[in-house]
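Reopening this one. Same input as before:
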Amino acid sequence: MTSELLEIHPQELKFTFELKKQSSCLIQLTNKTDQYVAFKVKTTSPKKYCVRPNTGIVKPKSISDFTVTMQAQRVAPPDLMCKDKFLIQSTVVPFGTAEEDITSDMFSKESGKHIEDKKLKVFLTSPPYSPVLAAINGELKQDSGHETSSPRDRAWSGVENIPPPERVAEEVVGFETAKDAVELRTTKDVQRFETSKVDIDELRAADGVQSSAAKDVQELKPAKSIEELKLGHDFEELKSKINFMDLKLKEAELSIMKLTEERSMATREKDKLKSELEVLKRKSDVQTIQVGFTFLYVCMVALVSLAVGYFSHL
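Same output, byte for byte:
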């Protein structure tokens, strides 16, 4: 068989690694053939990963998928390097085969069947930064930069609009020129004082904005921790329910196996009783035949003796 039985997408498993948190990856299988294809998923670290479902049937011209979940890890690997691998085995099965009919013998190469193997590597990626905190920090930087630069721009534009004292001296003569120069200097000093006052007020406002934003960030952290605790609690409940269901399934499987064994034993006993009845019937037939021959022999002897006696008297 030259063509591939299943197309796998993606060709590698990528997990976002975070300490004490689970991470999942979805793998899609596409069957472009006209036959039923069974698949089975294996891994080098079965205790570290959970595959649902690990076996299945992909019908002709259809798509199926399975989810790989990496369990929460307490220690991060060095440089996020992971040597774990997954193996996906696929083979052609008879038309109409169901998932319950899949056995491990279907994927045994000793039977001479064509088994297609594909290996997938595992890659770990670091989690991205929080978008909420990044957005808040970005807004603070933009606001602070705008507020600190705008009063200076206004101050510089105000100073440039004031005419220099030399030009006033050239236009006005005598006392008026000196008076105007003094007034211009006074106005310039007042403008500088007002500008510095505006800068101080706006810097105080910017500090207030930063402090309020920091408070908001501190308030967000407890809320986030509460949500994480809720998610962890919900996950533990789901995990306990799944374990309970697994126990129930195992009990049901054991009871089914016991019933099957009892049924087979009853069938064997029934066959054994039938064979014993047949043997008894054969023995009774043989005894009946033997008794019949003995009686006939007695009758013949009696008749012969009577004939002999009769002829002897004559």
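So the earlier flakiness isn't reproducible anymore. For the record, Residues 130-179 have pLDDT under 50 and may be disordered.
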